[in-house]
Amino acid sequence: MAMNIGNGGDDDGEVVSAINTTPLVDVMLVLLIIFLITIPVATHTVKVQLPVDRNQPTKTKPGNIVLAVTADGQSYWNTTPLTGHKDLLNRLMEAARQQPQPQIQIRGDGSVQYMPIGRIVAACQEAGIQHVDFITEQPHD
């Protein structure tokens, strides 16, 4: 068993300019294995059929109820200001008893916080309203 440890004294102090790529290959193989293991986990999800957006303009009919929310959080029943949650809930329960139920359209200011809108949606659900729409504007091109 023999080993070569040099040139036997003929070393002129040459610098070895070859790059040792073994650590690089090791790291790349580890990364490849990690990606191969994690990609199938990320792509498998529960199979559901997502709803399709129809993006049709909603027509306001005379029987529809428009709930407007201003930027400061004030709510309106058509054009009448609401005094609080009880007032809203009582009106929604009365509307829910009508046959057919009127359509509730929520018009929220673009800068309003989510909380006032969320309260209206929760009140609609609590009253048993079947059809709630959010009214938006088309983007200006």
From TrEMBL:
A Pfam family reported for this protein in Swiss-Prot or TrEMBL: ExbD
Superkingdom field: Bacteria
Membrane topology, as annotated: Single-pass type II membrane protein
Keywords from the UniProt entry: Cell inner membrane, Cell membrane, Membrane, Protein transport, Transmembrane, Transmembrane helix, Transport
Assembly mode: The accessory proteins ExbB and ExbD seem to form a complex with TonB.
Family indicated by similarity: Belongs to the ExbD/TolR family.
Primary role: Involved in the TonB-dependent energy-dependent transport of various receptor-bound substrates.
Protein name in UniProt: Biopolymer transporter ExbD
Organism: Bombella saccharophila
Lineage: Bacteria, Pseudomonadati, Pseudomonadota, Alphaproteobacteria, Acetobacterales
